[in-house]
Specification:
42% of the residues lie in helices and 7% in strands. The chain is elongated. The chain is of the alpha/beta class. The protein contains 17 helices and eight strands. It binds a DNA duplex through strand 7 and helix 12.
Length: 415
DNA sequence: CAGCGAATAT
DNA sequence: CATATTCGCT
């Protein structure tokens, strides 16, 4: 088998630009944050084409990922089999010489828990939905951008779960000041082909002594919330008049393994409160300075992200992140703050293209989306990443939590 | 039994 | 104090 351990690659980034995409001036000084988040994440990169392989490796390395490459599907599988523990994520091209389209994806799904991110030049809904349905954590359409790469780390945590927890779950009475190398506890699962909604089995050999008594605290991450929003958009915004958005249906639609009805209800309750608040705010604003404020509110999503951002309303059809609080309390919340910031997130290219397709399973999504978008709070979009602002400004903006991003407004209580 | 609002817990 | 869970009512 041909495995290349890449530690140093000699390809100039300039060529990256022409080959991969606009890639221009990826000034991405790989801000400290990016490298911090992706640091130590090991990625198995699978691509038949040497050029792509090299370029992608380069990009990955730039963000601090560890990269192992394979050119053939079989190689990828054996690597994954032997060294699954060292790996965090598989990034694979769909078209491989020795396998057909989603064979690697499927096989990988059967034999390991590694999240698989698919990349392909095929951008039809059929292809994308197919890939996602077969269990891909994310479907990236080539050309791959630096942003895509930058956000990859988020999907790596879908597998790295209990290992880290179990490793440190032993009594840590020692009041150690842990460094930041701690990893949060995400429980993620790839959807199987027959993937139904629930997964009765939870932990394999974990301490379940209190698992029944203690309910794991569910933390609604942006990703999870986005999924929630997506579900709501499809089903209908309010359960009262329409028959859409009952928690049960939402749960069904979200299709998240560990998620309980109660969680949805709770979140829905909070969500509705937030809605009310916003409506009141808008009303009070209407009385006084009607248009100026409103205008700024509505356009804000567009303003920040500028022209190059596509369709913020459409959120990822992709995967989700389920996060439970670990038994050790504090480390979670501290870690939590990081992912929020960087969550520009897998905007996969599903949204914009969907309107022309009647074949799209989520065709109703576009329909409902139009009539609803005035009602629901701004899509929770927080992070406009640093590199985004680079392109708009021309120079690097300082990293700061988006002030005007309304992503979080839903979370904070405005009165 | 499910949904929703309010109370309670973390 | 915010947010998740539990309770009680419909």
């Amino acid at each position: 088998m041909q495995i290349h351990h890449i530690s140093n690659i000699e390809v100039s980034v300039d060529q990256t630009a022409y080959a991969m995409n606009t890639g221009e001036v990826i000034t991405v000084e790989s801000s400290e944050f990016d490298t911090l988040l992706s640091a130590g994440v090991s990625i198995l990169l699978v691509d038949d084409d040497s050029i792509c392989l090299t370029i992608l490796s380069k990009m990955l390395l730039k963000f601090g990922y560890k990269v192992i490459t394979a050119k053939r599907g079989t190689d990828a599988l054996s690597i994954a089999r032997e060294r699954e523990d060292e790996l965090d994520l598989v990034l694979a091209e769909t078209h491989l010489p020795d396998m057909d389209k989603y064979e690697l994806l499927e096989t990988m799904g059967e034999m390991s828990t590694l999240p698989v991110v698919i990349m392909s030049a095929d951008d039809s809904e059929n292809d994308m939905l197919g890939g996602l349905f077969k269990g891909a954590a994310l479907y990236l359409v080539k050309p791959i951008t630096m942003n895509d790469i930058k956000n990859l780390w988020q999907f790596a945590f879908m597998k790295k779960t209990e290992r880290t927890v179990a490793a440190e779950d032993s009594s840590c009475i020692s009041s150690d000041h842990d460094t930041e190398n701690q990893i949060f506890t995400n429980t993620g699962r790839q959807s199987h082909q027959n993937g139904k909604r629930k997964e009765p089995k939870e932990m394999e050999e974990d301490n379940d002594d209190i698992s029944v008594l203690k309910k794991p605290k569910l933390i609604w991450t942006n990703g999870l919330h986005n999924r929630f929003l997506q579900a709501i958009r499809v089903l209908g915004i309010d359960g009262k008049v329409f028959q859409g958005a009952h928690p049960k249906k939402i749960l069904q639609h979200m299709n998240v393994p560990g998620l309980k009805k109660e969680n949805i209800s709770s979140h829905l309750q909070k969500y509705r409160l937030a809605l009310k608040r916003e409506q009141r705010i808008e009303k009070t604003m209407n009385r006084d300075y009607a248009e100026s404020h409103l205008a700024s509110y509505n356009s804000s999503t567009v303003d920040i992200q500028g022209d190059l951002y596509q369709n913020p309303e459409m959120q990822s059809l992709t995967s989700f992140q389920l996060e439970f609080g670990s038994h050790e309390p504090e480390n979670v919340s501290s870690c939590m703050s990081m992912p929020f910031l960087g969550y520009t997130n897998s905007l996969n290219h599903l949204g914009p293209n969907c309107n022309d397709s009647s074949s799209c399973k989520y065709g109703q999504l576009t329909l409902l989306g139009n009539q609803l978008d005035s009602t629901y709070p701004r899509s929770s979009f927080t992070g406009i990443s640093v590199s985004d602002s680079v392109t708009s400004n021309g120079k690097l903006a300082e990293f700061r939590p988006m002030v005007d991003s309304n992503g979080e407004d839903f979370l904070k209580g405005n009165k």
